[in-house]
Amino acid sequence: MGAKGLLVDYEWCSGCHTCEVACQLEHGYPSDQWGIKVHEVGPWEYTPKTWQYSYLPAPTDQCDLCADRVAKGHEPTCVKHCQAQVLKYGDLEDLAKELARKPKQTLFSCEAED
């Protein structure tokens, strides 16, 4: 089995923070810690009537891709609860192919090294 990762399509992230809350509840993290954190980029106007304003969910060092859930055949809790369906879990090799097909995506590898 290949290395696993998380593909984030940040073009469509609404910044709802559901992934953060689901992760905190799943792992019992205190309110100031996350396994995934939504970052706000912007807002600023860079040409007339064109704005930079987006959100980017990013796994933290505490993210283990919900190893216990995945071992039971479930997807990571952030993926399951993402309301905008911008998070995708899978093999890094497969996710890298999807990454190449569309801009405004990023790929994270969250597994611990041996």
TrEMBL record:
<dbReference type="GO" id="GO:0051539">
    <property type="term" value="F:4 iron, 4 sulfur cluster binding"/>
</dbReference>
<keyword id="KW-0677">Repeat</keyword>
<dbReference type="Pfam" id="PF13247">
    <property type="entry name" value="Fer4_11"/>
</dbReference>
<feature type="domain" description="4Fe-4S ferredoxin-type">
    <location>
        <begin position="4"/>
        <end position="33"/>
    </location>
</feature>
<protein>
    <submittedName>
        <fullName>Oxidoreductase</fullName>
    </submittedName>
</protein>
<keyword id="KW-0004">4Fe-4S</keyword>
<keyword id="KW-0479">Metal-binding</keyword>
<keyword id="KW-0408">Iron</keyword>
<dbReference type="GO" id="GO:0046872">
    <property type="term" value="F:metal ion binding"/>
</dbReference>
<dbReference type="GO" id="GO:0030313">
    <property type="term" value="C:cell envelope"/>
</dbReference>
<keyword id="KW-0411">Iron-sulfur</keyword>
<dbReference type="InterPro" id="IPR017896">
    <property type="entry name" value="4Fe4S_Fe-S-bd"/>
</dbReference>
<dbReference type="InterPro" id="IPR051555">
    <property type="entry name" value="FDH_Electron_Transfer_Unit"/>
</dbReference>
